[in-house]
Design a protein that fits this description.
Elements lengths: L3 E4 L5 H15 L1 H4 L3 H8 L4 H9 L3 E8 L2 E9 L4 E6 L8 H15 L4 E6 L4 H6 L3 E7 L5 E8 L21
Antiparallel strand pairs: 1-2, 2-3, 3-4, 5-7, 6-7
Helix pairs in contact: 1-4
Length: 175
């Protein structure tokens, strides 16, 4: 399948928000286990207005995967090298959109001088990131009540693991 991977713009926010909300609610059941309180906390900041603000931030790199004029994936990288979002619409799973988004985001990170990416993966996405060369580095409890796995990946030769301060969730990205 072919996907157009392009920079996200504020006009993509509503569609990207729908991708985020559906992906979390429908694909991440292993993580939220149907717990309404966890789901509410996780989805709490996934509004079109908030997503638009993430896309507008000059410190973030935001990409969307588009197929047939519909946004089917969204990824967001912070200036600190954190892949804060990498989500797909449930209908786009296992069709190459995630791989394409991740590859393009890694290219963008390198172009910006980021030598190591890190992320907090759900149990649902753990296998995906491991299959793409990300290394496990412990478990972290997300502020919304889900256990996550810290992953990191060196993008450049001689790149090291992220420093211990960045391994923790912070409130800086709200993602």
């Amino acid at each position: 399948m072919s996907f157009d991977i392009r920079p996200a713009v504020p006009q993509d926010a509503a569609a990207a928000c729908e991708v985020l909300r559906r992906s979390i609610a429908e694909c991440c059941v292993l993580d939220h286990r149907g717990d309404a309180a966890v789901l509410s906390a996780w989805l709490g900041n996934k509004t079109p207005q908030t997503v638009a603000s993430w896309f507008e931030s000059p410190t973030n790199v935001s990409l969307v995967a588009v197929q047939d004029d519909a946004v089917v994936g969204v990824a967001l990288l912070t200036a600190a090298g954190k892949l804060a979002l990498c989500y797909l619409h449930p209908d786009a799973l296992r069709r190459g959109a995630g791989r394409a988004l991740l590859a393009r985001m890694e290219e963008r990170a390198l172009a910006l001088g980021i030598k190591t990416l890190f992320l907090h993966s759900t149990a649902t996405a753990e296998g995906f990131f491991a299959a793409h060369g990300y290394r496990r580095d412990g478990n972290v409890r997300a502020p919304y009540g889900v256990d996550t796995v810290l992953f990191w990946k060196p993008l450049a030769l001689h790149a090291g693991a992220p420093d211990s301060q960045r391994k923790r969730f912070c409130n800086c990205s709200s993602a």
